[in-house]
Specification:
The chain is of the alpha+beta class and about 100 residues long. The protein is about 35% helix and about 30% strand. This is Antibiotic biosynthesis monooxygenase.
């Protein structure tokens, strides 16, 4: 089963250009990982300093391999002082057709 997540962070004022450059380089590398199926970077229309990154990996092993890529640690170390959060906020997603159905009354 694929591993899907949304990573979110907001950029500190004055760091926008640096973060855009970091994210561009990082996304090129991640998209080349054998188990990466999607790595789509967005900013919120209402707040261009707020990033949402939609990521899909072939399976848990591919996601774990992504986490251990040496360039990932470098990216996060350089990103951390540029964002408002301690680190990217990760939300793991499940396809709606696999989610438990709400009980009907």
């Amino acid at each position: 089963m694929t591993k899907t997540l949304l990573a979110e962070f907001s950029v500190r004022p004055g760091r926008e250009a640096h973060v855009a450059e970091l994210v561009e380089g990082y996304s090129r590398r991640v998209r080349q990982e054998p188990g990466n199926l999607a790595f789509e970077v967005y900013t919120k229309e209402s707040d261009p300093r707020s990033y949402c990154v939609f990521e899909v990996y072939a399976d848990e092993a591919a996601f774990r391999a992504h986490l251990t890529a040496p360039y990932g640690a470098l990216f996060n170390a350089e990103l951390r002082p540029c964002i408002n959060e301690e680190e990217s906020v990760l939300t793991f997603l499940t396809p709606a057709d696999h989610a438990p159905q709400a009980r009907r009354r």
